[in-house]
Amino acid sequence: MPSLETAPFDPRFPNTNQTRYCYSSYLDFYRCQKVKGESYKPCQYFKKVYNSVCPNSWVEKWNDQREDGTFPAKI
After folding, report:
1. Nearest alpha-carbon partner for 45 in 59, 31, 64
2. How many CB atoms lie within 10 A of CB 29?
3. How far apart are CA 1 and CA 21, in angstroms?
């Protein structure tokens, strides 16, 4: 059985609202992959965090926006 883990505490986001933590982790994952390459394992930390913290509907929307070239942030 796989072990289930949640995102660890990040002191940059001390509040209970984790929206910024979610969005920052999503951006950090794709920025890390862009700079270090897709096979760079430490980037997977950010993916684990945003998969744990972000609602699936947000991730799907952001993935669609990235594919369409309409994502509002610079990656």
Report:
1. 31
2. 20
3. 28
